[in-house]
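---------- Forwarded message ----------

FYI, see the catechol O-methyltransferase record below. Original note from H. follows.
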Amino acid sequence: GTAALIWNEIIREKVMNFIMNQSKEQRILNFVLQNAVRGDPRSVVDTIDKYCSQREWAMNVGNEKGLILDKTVEEVNPSVALELGSYCGYSAVRIARLLKAGARLLTVEFNPQFAAIARQMIEFAGVQDKVKLLEGPSQEIIPQLKKKYEVDTLDFVFLDHWKDRYTPDTILLQECNLLRKGSVLLADNVIFPGAPDFLTYVRKSPHFQCTNYPSHLEYMQVEDAVEKAVFLG
């Protein structure tokens, strides 16, 4: 079943890390540097999808859920967007390529190795003028957004970091007055690995209007979903 699939991928990754003396994330970046078109965000996204569907599974949002992400970004047309969890920079590049002139994306990554990869990915895709990568824990960075990063309110937030941070960080965004009426939150992996407390929180809150988009786990036929929560003020 699902557990066996994931377990096999973990074992394979450990073996490759050992043999090649580099991380999977480094291999993804190298594959992009060698095969994608510099300065072409679509090419970077497609190349990562190709690597992860054919060679090694990775926790990007992937193409199926990526289309839901694209559609949401296009509908919101944000001036200021926030991503929690940069990982390899896949979704940052995916979001940035849809941003209008003058719009910006702040992407937060806790893991320094992932942040280093994401920085290079963003730069190679040519979207570094639209994307600012902030390194550190989300619970420290969110309260700094207004003063340090001159954010008034966020038009769009993509949650794709630690699943147990979804709820506290959503509460933090509310407490820091970073959401306005109409701000849209989009949360990945709400079914697998799952964020049940987040779903309960936003669905029961009078401040959010929710829509669920059933989908599949990136690069696998495992059921997953993306949750959209519109802030009502």
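H. also flagged this: The chain has a mean pLDDT of 92.
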